[in-house]
Structures are given as C-alpha cells and as structure tokens.
Amino acid sequence: MSDEPTDLYNNYFDPFQSQYQYGDFRHNPGSYISFTDCLQGSIDYNSLERAVGLSPSSCEVLPPVDGSAGTVVSDHAREIIGGLTSDSNNPVTQNSSISSYSEDGTEEDSCKNKREIQAKDGDEGGETSSKQNKPKKRGEKIQREPRFAFMTKSEVDHLEDGYRWRKYGQKAVKNSPYPRSYYRCTTHKCTVKKRVERSFQDPSIVITTYEDQHNHPIPATLRGSSSSAGQMFASSMPIHTSPAAAGHGQSFSHQLLLQMHTRPLHHPGSGGRGMGSTCPLTQTSSRQQQFHEQYPDYGLLQDMVPSICFKQEP
DNA sequence: CGTTTTTGACCCGCGC
DNA sequence: GCGCGGGTCAAAAACG
Asked: Is pLDDT of A122 > 70?
C-alpha cells in the first residue's frame, strides 16, 4: 500500500524534531541503537548516550506545555505528534515511519495504572469478584508495567502484529474525533494490553501503546500467515532492518515483534507478577531516576527513557 | 456454538 | 464534594 521509501535514511521519523530534542541524532550517524536492544533490556547506557549524543540526564528536553503529570501517555504522545505534524518540514507526509517510546514507571503512579494493576491482581488472585472496586493498599508503591508507545503511519487502526487481541473497550478521546481502543492479548494468562488511537492532528498516524510483555510465542496459527506479523511494520515503517536485526538475518519488523513480545521474562520470582522486574529497562532505572529528577514535568516521557529512533545503517 | 466486538455503565483518582 | 476523564467490565450483538 504505502510505497516503500527508497531513502530510508532520510525518512526516519524523529519525534523530537520539533518539540523534544535528545541531542542531535542526525549528527551522530551510526550511533543509533536498535530498538530491539532496548526492548531486550540489553541496552546499555553507553550506547544510549552515544545514540542520543548526551546522557539522558543532560538531554535537552522541552517540557510539555501541559505539565500535568497524571495525564495519560497518549495525550502527551499526541502533543508530541502535534508538534511534529505542525512542522512543515517534518517527514510525516512522507512515507511511514515509526517512533517509539518506552515507559518504565517506577515512580509516580497514575490513576489508570493503579487501576490496571488492581484489575490484574484481581484476575490473578481471583479475590476481586466484584468488578473493580477493590482498592489497593493506599500509599503502597505500585509498579507500573513497562510500556512502549509506537507512532505508526498507517491507514488501519489496529495494526496486525501477529498476536491475537481482543478488544475490551473503546473510549472517545478528549479533543479528538478518533476513539481510543483497548485490546488485550487473548492468550491465557498473558497480561499484555495495548491501546490504539489515532492522532487527531495527523490522522494517518496511529499511536499504539503496548503494555507489559507477552510470555508466550506468537500464536502458531497466525505465524503461519507470514504476512500478518510483518504486515504492521512492513506497511507502516520504512525501516526494515536495524543493525542488530540485520545481524540475525531477519527483517527488523519481525525481529522487533519477536523480541518485543516473546522476550523471556526474567522471571518473576520476586515481586508479585514480576512487573517491575520484567521491564526491559528496569536495569537502567537509576539513570532514569536521574532523568526524572531533572525533568519532573516531562509529560509523556516522564516515565520513559529517551526515544529511540530507528534507521538503517548506511 | 465459540469467539470477538460493541457499548453503556461503572469505578477511581485528580483537580477545582 | 463534585465533575471530569481515563480505564475496565460485562451483557448483548455480531461474526465465522
């Protein structure tokens, strides 16, 4: 559908081009880290620093206009996109690309996360037979699941990623004509959720936020239809390979999906459902904390490590 | 008939 | 205290 851009290098989508800046990506060619590294938790901050040009704690970040900490991630994502799309030089009008944000909340908890966790606890322990009115212990630090938000240029809302999802809700998004859809992985005991919404400023952009990680492989039935898993990225992102993925002889998209969803959890053992510990970026939490301290009002990225932009090595 | 989607109701935290 | 917004539930409908 979307034409494959021939110049991937110039086509990558820098979400921080206008509003958020993490050093100068473009002036550090070859210093990109692969997103798979990030997802795997194998990312080391030396790489990150190289990639972004500076350390997270010294990133040049323009705080969001709206400093509300409790606002939902996607709202901020939208803000970012807003900044992006309002930039006439921005390549959003070019062919697709994808950006990602990872979110690792070890700090503040937003209401939604509390609720999500409550729901999970309820599912698991089966102790909350009543819907959703079992408040967690107050004051208890609640760990947030790792989250990854993707901004994808795509015509379809629900991007096929190889897993089976069941829609469990849809809500109108404030200030946006496009609703937000909530999906849950249908695999038994898999707690992965994702939210899908369209940018109201650039309807061609779909924001997909994954939460938690799959503890199972891609369903065989879907893997068979080879197209499905790769479709999402094949059609929505121009980057076919990252250095890391290329090294494995797999398309980046596939690699990304596999690593993202099937990366073995360091297992739980500690801490309930292993929420905090399964976050691929948890190991870097101290650095993140630094970052958070420096940018307490950092909106969307408040709980995320700096965005990783993908591009193909020249 | 099993699975998925739709959709209104509900819960909760936060800001005013 | 109240209203708002985000997130989830669950019954009914739709689908294959």
From this structure: no
Q: Is residue A183 very low, low, confident or very high in pLDDT (cuts 50, 70, 90)?
A: very high
- C-alpha pair distances (Å), A186 with each of A38, A116, A227: 25, 16, 20
- The mean pLDDT value of chain A amounts to 49
CA–C1' distance A300–B10 (Å)?
Answer: 27
DSSP string for A286-307 = HHHHHHHHH-TT-GGGGGEEEE
The pLDDT of residue A174 is: 82
Residues whose CB is below 7 A of strand C: A 71-75, 111-112, 115-116, 119, 122-123, 131-132, 168-174, 180, 182, 193, 195
Cβ distance A76 to A285 under 8 Å?
no
Contacts of A34 (CB under 8 A, 6+ apart): A242, A243, A244, A245, A252, A308, A310
Contact A247, A241 (CB under 8 A): no
What's the CA A192/C1' B5 distance, rounded, in angstroms? 19
Look at residue A167 and tell me whether its pLDDT is greater than 90: yes
What single DSSP character describes residue A183? E
Q: What is the CA radius of gyration of chain A?
A: 18
| Bridge partner residues of A185 (DSSP) | A165
What DSSP character marks residue A186?
-
pTM attached to this predicted model: 0.53
Tens-place pLDDT, residues A295-308 = 433 333 333 333 33
User: How many angstroms separate the CA of A9 from the C1' of C11?
Assistant: 50
